[in-house]
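Re: your question from the hallway

Yes, I did run it. Sequences:
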Amino acid sequence: MSNEQYSLNKGLAQMLKGGVIMDVTTPEQARIAEKAGACAVMALERIPADIRAAGGVSRMSDPKMIKSIQNAVSIPVMAKCRIGHFAEAQILEAIEIDYIDESEVLSPADDVYHINKRDFKVPFVCGARDLGEALRRINEGASMIRTKGEPGTGDIVQAVRHMRKMNAEIAKVSALREDELFEEAKRLQVPYELVKYVHENKKLPVVNFAAGGVATPADAALMMQLGAEGVFVGSGIFKSGDPEKRANAIVKAVTNYTDAKLIAELSEDLGEAMVGINENEIKLIMEERGQ
Amino acid sequence: MRIGVLAVQGAFIEHEKVMQSLGCDCVELRQKSDIVSLDGLILPGGESTVQNKLLHELDMFDALKDMIKGGVRTLATCAGLILLAEKISNDEKRAFATLPVTVKRNAYGRQLGSFRTRSDFKGIGDVDMTFIRAPYIEKVSADVKILSVVDQKIVGVEYKNQIGLSFHPELDKDDSIHRYFLNHT
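Structure:
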């Protein structure tokens, strides 16, 4: 990936800011998401809650299914490949996906190496639980970061934990003396230049979204107030009682995330939220995949 | 100078930073009550489908359309250009429809068709231009001034108080287009 391509890819993430990216499994759901105000959709065969329920190995989706979603909507279409599975990423690039999510939601294909995302022209988003993970993914070529959260649970606690940890570490790096940055780079296992960027700019060099466990307009507002620049909603929409209404409400809550009165109105009569499972009830911890 | 920046979705902070560096106050427009006493308006990049929907549902559409029609200087980039366009050749939906041009959405294809170039901008000279899933302008009415053409496609126009661009000057370091906008405000 040339520097110019990388800046274009970071630029697309900037255009998605203040928006909601929704998981969809069919062209019909994609159209509902677009109509409800999604700024992009994530095309996948099974949403995370169902991946959890089904168990087994989960892989990149059928390209035909992804193409049917690309044809159904005019907004950007993202798709997931397994961590380290660069051949799946090559396939997604070949069908001109707009963004690849190298995702812990799918079964990892490599337990040591992530994809060398610098080899690709197409942009990548990756999950991170803290500053070190985020900068390692950026060093590999990711042009957008999201919290890992704990996908498919409807439980926001992990996303909150990851966002707070990221914020605390960014604040710490910003406050260091310049001669302390070398040691910090060593500790985080990332290049000095990236640490220096965070020190000088008090933010990540790329856009940072919240993901994993967002189920209500209030969850979305919480993550935005904690500093997320936008929100991914996976199972939260199409696992709920009234997907269209809930999608609409979450979109508006992200735009006006500090207006509690409006969010109160938006939260009325949304029907049933996804049931959700607590952290201590789940067997499979996806956030620990790929570090 | 008080500039309103549409902040329902997209890359509005980037515009605010440029305008603040030029000494302007910026107001983020997220709902109707934010739209008061503005000297200029910026419609940023983002997803035009989302922005148009939220403009209506947050009850901002009419107030902003009146402002634009009333002559408040407006700078629109990428998705913003689509909001201003009178016609969209590959979409039935319209937004403000105050700029007499026909645009094509996602005219360069998907993200792999995004590109950067350097080209002439009328009254300024060569500027860097970043196109991201960009539209271009297929037709303009006779009274529309063409500001920039890239590969035989119109990518920048001016009509009365409105400037519409396919690309993103807010993503490049050069602030000359924002200064151009400000000098006419």
